[in-house]
Amino acid sequence: MIDSSVTEWEYETLRPDRDATRKEAVDPKPRLNELGAEGWELVETISYEGGGTKFLVFKRPRAATQSA
């Protein structure tokens, strides 16, 4: 039997634009606000060795009608 009280999550990633130095080239705030309005919460950043962000990881509860 499946425990219906367990929250299922879905995930999204955002890869910030970078310049030749692999540092962030553009402020991602507008896209972050869009994702926040869609119910996404930033939970992790994955960085390059030596600096710069490779991915921003978001999660939100999976809707009961969605399938994996």
Descriptive account of the structure:
The chain is an alpha+beta fold and 68 residues long. It has one domain. The chain is built from one helix and three strands. It has a three-stranded antiparallel β-sheet, with helices on one face. Strand 2 and strand 3 form a beta hairpin. The radius of gyration is 15 Å and the shape is elongated. It starts with 8 loop residues before the first strand and ends in a 7-residue tail after the last strand.
Pattern of helices and strands:
EHEE
Biggest sheet descriptor: 3 strands, antiparallel
Q: If strands are numbered along the chain, what order do they take across the biggest sheet?
A: 1-3-2
Radius of gyration: 15 Å
The portion of residues assigned to helices is: 10-25%
Ranges with pLDDT <50 over ≥5 residues? none
What's the overall average pLDDT, rounded? 82
By oligomeric state, this entry counts as: single chain
Instruction: Measure the end-to-end span.
Output: 18 Å
Total tally of structural domains: 1
Q: Which structural class should the secondary elements be placed in?
A: alpha+beta
Shape: elongated
Number of extended strands: 3
- The fraction of residues assigned to DSSP E strands is 25-35%
Helix tally equals 1
